[in-house]
């Protein structure tokens, strides 16, 4: 099947029409817009990756299993370390995406600048071609009118050739010759304008073909660039998945080394308090305790000795004491 190309598919029978060229330019502008949209998409995706990476990095710094010990503690330490490594890999992915977006931006700006020169040249040619076509059309209009004037003058002279006087015939002849010269001058100007328009048309045709080839080449480069940039973008995402899985695999390997019985025995050996439980607490009956309780003797109170008898003088009376045999109590 014959391949289609821009240079064979965007013509118009109207020499003043720019519909084909305008269609190409519209498509090129749409392509430029697509490049900008993909560029913005990748920048936004890079920002998401960076935000996720920073939050994941902060999460990896939080306390997780601080009180654990032995093999499980080592596994949790590896888990936190690899979480940090995953966050760093996402930061690297975000930077890579920004670099790819920058490449696309540079490509878009470069195409814009080079296309600008071609568009300016073609716009100038379109204006010149349109102006020359208008000038040629006006020259043709004048030429047609002068030819009609010439024919009318000739017909008038022929009609009055036998009826008019010699002086009138001279005037008619002079008028016919003047009309003939004017028509010839109009023909010359018209023919000259047609020639100029023809040369301008040839120039425009050549430049249009070159412009079509240039735009088609740019379109090929643009499509190829976008295809490759998206393909590379997806490769980076796939590689990120592989990298993350490799880092997570390190955690899984560490968890495989986690020995439950060893951790239990490690805790026992580290924190054991003894291997003998307390003896049973016996039941003690209150009343049994009362019967079997020994009788306690009251403590002996300390008593003072008898007061010494008061000294007596020779003439003092004698007092009896309780201890004397003759002492008696008076009862009421």
What does this molecule look like?
The chain is mainly α. About 75% of the residues lie in helices and about 0% in strands. It has six helices and no strands. It has helices spanning about 5-10, 20-60, 70-160, 165-255, 260-270, 285-290. Helix 2 (about 20-60) runs antiparallel to helix 3, helix 2 packs parallel to helix 4 and helix 3 runs antiparallel to helix 4. The longest helix is centred in the middle third of the chain and has 91 residues, at about 165-255. The radius of gyration is 62 Å and the shape is rod-shaped. Residues about 325-330 have low confidence and may be disordered.
Question: What are the key terms here?
Answer:
332 residues, mainly alpha, 6 helices, 74% helix, rod-shaped, disordered C terminus
SSE string: HHHHHH
* Helix/strand structural class: mainly alpha
* Terminal Cα span: 161 Å
Give the overall shape: rod-shaped
Could you give a short description of this structure?
With 332 residues, the chain is an all-alpha fold. It has 6 helices and no strands. The chain has helices at 6-9, 19-60, 70-159, 166-256, 260-271, 286-291.
